[in-house]
Amino acid sequence: MAYFKVEKLVKYFGGLAAVNGVSFEVRKGEIFGIIGPNGCGKTTTFNMISGVFPPTSGRVIYQGQEIQGMKPHRISHLGVGRTFQVVKPLGRMSVLDNVTAAAFSRVSSMREARVLALEKIDFCGLTPVKDVLAKAGVNVQMISTSEIKISVVVDANYVELAQRVLHDAFIG
Hints:
This protein is an alpha+beta fold and 172 residues long. The chain folds into two domains: 4-78, Rossmann fold, CATH 3.40.50.300; 95-171, no CATH class. Helix content is 26%, strand content 22%. It contains five helices and six strands. It has helices spanning 42-49, 72-78, 95-103, 110-123, 165-171; strands at 4-13, 16-26, 57-62, 65-66, 151-154, 159-162. A hairpin with a 2-residue loop joins strand 1 (4-13) and strand 2. Helix 3 crosses helix 4. It is globular and about 50 Å long.
């Protein structure tokens, strides 16, 4: 059984079919990507999966539950998250504080959020820069491209695209 499944997803904007019949399955533990040229519907597909846009038709199934048409915050609390092409870190806060703030979509206490944030930062190899301010231009020389990582974490409870906080702040 698929951990995550998209069936015949369609999105029309007026008379334009931005996405027309996209289907795929992702098994637990699998890393899956969508590639294609500009304008082919990749972002629209992610927007439908995450609840930003309701699909015109089709189904999105996460752990056996249909989630298409749910509000984004409900989908996030189920464990489906996404990153955006332009990341806007909170520049006056450290990398750790930024990731801690994001962790509140999964947990409800500061202690739990901090523990989860530290786990994700460690997984992404960003522990050496966890206390660096996330604003552009700060300590750029100490952060190499190899330390800026995008990870996909799949575990028993959620699929998470984790940790692009530094990418746009330091690479642009």
